[in-house]
Amino acid sequence: MLTKFAFFDFDDTLIHGDSGGKLLKYYLKRHPLSVFRLLKVVYHYALYLLKIEPLNKAKSAWLYPLDYMNDQEIEKFYQEELEPCYYLNVIEELKKQKAEGYIIYICSASAEAYLRFCKLPVDEILGTKTLIKENKYTSQMIGNNCKNEEKVKRIQEVIKNHNLEIDYDLSYAYSDSLHDIPMLKMVKNRIKIDTKDGHMSTFEIE
C-alpha cells in the first residue's frame, strides 16, 4: 500500500549536536575518574582510522558509559541532555506531519539504547544496535552502523515487514548531512536542517 512517510535523522536534525558526545560528557561529569577510559576510546579510534580495526570496535569503546548505566539513568540522560537540545521548529514539523497522517521514522547512527526513550510521536526508531545482555543494554555494537546506505536497508526492512510502500511524491526526509543522501533519495521532498538554528530549507541533491 502506498504510504506517506517522513524520515528524520536525529543528531543535528532533531537535536543540536552529537548525542554520542553528549552521553560521554554526561557520564564523565558524574564519574570523573572514568576519564582514563578515554585512552581506550582514542586507541580504538586510532586503529579504526589506520584501517586496522572496524568501526564497531571504536564505536563500542565510545559508548562505554552504557555498560555502567541502568535504564533509569539512560532515560534520565535522554530527558536532561537531549530533550533540551531539540530544534523546536523541527519538532513542530514532525508533529504536524504526524497529524497529517504521515508515518514517522527516526533513522540515526545514534544508539537505540537511548533513542528508545524518545517520547515524540514516531512510529519507528531505527538506530545503531548494541548487545542486550541479561535485559541490559551494553556498549557492544552489533550489526552495521546505521548510517549511509545502512539507513536505506533498515527502512526497507521495516516497511516490507509492514507490507507498505513509500509514496515517493508525497513523502519527506529531513537531515543536516550529505551522509544521508541515500535516505533522502528515497523520497521526493528533501529538507535540509541548518545546524546553527534548525532552519529548514530544500536539500539540493545533484
Provide a descriptive summary of the structure in words.
The chain is of the alpha/beta class. The chain has 8 helices and 9 strands. The strands form 2 sheets. The chain has a 7-stranded mixed β-sheet with strand order 5-4-3-2-7-8-9. Strand 3, helix 6 and strand 4 form a beta-alpha-beta unit. The longest helix is centred in the last third of the chain and has 13 residues. The radius of gyration is 17 Å and the shape is globular. It starts with a strand and ends with a strand.
Brief summary:
By secondary structure, this protein is an alpha/beta fold.
* End-to-end distance: 29 Å
How many strands appear in the DSSP assignment? 9
Side-by-side strand order of the widest sheet: 5-4-3-2-7-8-9
Helices and strands, in N-to-C order? EEHHHHHEHEEHEEHEE
Strand content: 15-25%
Note the main sheet: 7 strands, mixed
Percent helix, as a range, is 25-40%
Number of H/I helices = 8
- Low-pLDDT runs of 5+ residues are none
Shape: globular
Structural class: alpha/beta
Rg is: 17 Å
Residue-averaged pLDDT, rounded? 96
List keywords for this structure.
206 residues; alpha/beta; two-stranded parallel sheet; 8 helices; 9 strands; 22% strand; globular
